[in-house]
Amino acid sequence: MSVRVLIGEIIRWLGEQADNIEECCQYPGGFEGWLQCEMIRFLNARDGVAVFYEREAGHVYGNVLKRADFLFHLKNRSYIVELKCQSRQTVGFEHLIMEDIDKLNQAMGEYQNYEGIVLGVFTQGYSNEMDDFVERPPSMTVTGVNRINGNIYLFYMITRSVYIQSLADNADFLN
Fold it and tell me: What does the domain layout of the chain look like in residue ranges?
């Protein structure tokens, strides 16, 4: 499976979860942990969507207190995945996304060769902020904002590797 198919599956699934997300984003403490577990349940239940994963991987970054939300291992590529979920109490969602992008650049050892994915699930209130962010992404990335359903949006950013390389040298990047 390509990363493009993976992102498409996640977008479709988020649409099915829109009502749950609308409710959960109002609770204090956020809903990222819940969304992580539900996303893995969904991906494991899909026919033809083979994702081997590790959740809350503590050995990726130099600091054991920093954990990668996921390691996804697809067909012939591996990804460090960072996820941010905006709750009603979240302030500065764009800043939190930037922190996850910076976190990818702290990968150590073999994980420096992994590609990076940052996902941000947010509501209508942040759509303009994230649209502006997509217009000025870090160099050599693929980014997008998709309106999922109602007030739910998904920001995604995919890097060629956590140490960003030129896409011109990697024409099959999204395959």
Answer: 3-169
